[in-house]
Amino acid sequence: MKAKIIDGKMAAEAIRNQVREKASSMKVKPGLAVIIVGNDPASKIYVRKKEQACREVGFHSVVVELPEDVSELKLLQQIDSLNQDRKIHGILVQLPLPGHIDERLVIDAILPTKDVDGFTPINMGNLVVGDNRLVPSTPRGIIKLIESTGIKISGKHAVVVGRSNIVGKPVSLLLQQHGATVTMCHSRSSPLESYTKQADILISAVGKPKLIKGDMVKKGAIVIDVGTTKVGSSIVGDVDFDSASDVASFITPVPGGVGPMTIACLLENTLQAAQSFGKNL
Ligand code: NAP
């Protein structure tokens, strides 16, 4: 039997509706500022999507566009000004940044209470100790997608392929918090299938098209494909959808799986930051 498709668009729509409703009853509109440096076309598309999503749920939205050669100091000053802006509750810096800018330094400059990407060391540290204040959006969305299957995470063996700060590490921590036994794989996990075949829940966040084939998946597994790689005019995931669908019980498509949830969870994080704004003063 073919795997059931986990519909990220539908799940994201439900979240956006909830966010819109909650935001409409707030005295001050939640505000999100996105900083983009340079002219990377993919980054520009992501930023436009975020801006549009904010508008659709009634948020105040600001996009700060800075030139490719902006100095690190200028960027830090911009963040400082948004940190102090009372209309802005969430700040994110679209990554990657040009090579002359220290990415960690820039992220560290965001006020942790406005860090709706959850990438600052304070929020990452909070996650490590199980204090989930602002959790990175993609991992937050992944957990919701797994929960939407109705299958309990607790007691399962989850295998996460990829160990980045934005997906692999935080999703592993969240899965552990939910009671899974977690194995983290990376470029030196060999042979990769010896790990992936043990997974009740398999998450791939690598960025290599069709890395995970059906014969690397355990029968009945839940497969979450985070990968998005542009191949020609299409976006392709890490998982070979057709062969994996023959083995898995549930699977996310690319596009239409994790991607829409990332933006929906970013809106949730911004709402959460706005709701706690008064308490943080
Ligand atoms: P990243 O920082 O480039 O990390 C990739 C990870 O994959 C690294 O840990 C790397 O291992 C590992 N890796 C590389 N080749 C491998 C192999 N052959 N076998 C096993 N592991 C391998 O990537 P990222 O930022 O986490 O993003 C991963 C993918 O998810 C990308 O396609 C990105 O576009 C996508 N993404 C999608 C969303 C969304 O909303 N849909 C959000 C974020 C990211 P090492 O650490 O050993 O180098």
The helix fraction, in percent, is 40-55%
The main sheet comes to:
6 strands, parallel
Beta-strand portion reads: 15-25%
Number of helices: 11
Tell me the name of the CATH homologous superfamily of the largest domain: NAD(P)-binding Rossmann-like Domain
Description:
This protein has 281 residues and is an alpha/beta fold. The protein has helices spanning 8-24, 41-56, 72-84, 103-108, 121-128, 137-147, 168-177, 192-196, 241-245, 258-275, 277-280; strands at 4-5, 31-37, 60-66, 90-93, 157-161, 181-185, 201-204, 222-225, 229-231, 234-236, 250-251. The strands form three sheets. It has a six-stranded parallel β-sheet. It has a three-stranded parallel β-sheet with strand order 3-2-4, sandwiched between helices. Strands 9-10 form a two-stranded antiparallel ribbon. Helix 1 (8-24) packs parallel to helix 10, helix 6 (137-147) crosses helix 7 (168-177) and helix 6 crosses helix 10. The protein is globular and about 50 Å long. The model has no long low-confidence stretch (mean pLDDT 96).
Helix and strand topology:
Layout: E1 4-5, H1 8-24, E2 31-37, H2 41-56, E3 60-66, H3 72-84, E4 90-93, H4 103-108, H5 121-128, H6 137-147, E5 157-161, H7 168-177, E6 181-185, H8 192-196, E7 201-204, E8 222-225, E9 229-231, E10 234-236, H9 241-245, E11 250-251, H10 258-275, H11 277-280
Bound molecules: NADP nicotinamide-adenine-dinucleotide phosphate.
Distinctive features:
single chain; Rossmann fold; 6-stranded parallel β-sheet; binds NADP nicotinamide-adenine-dinucleotide phosphate
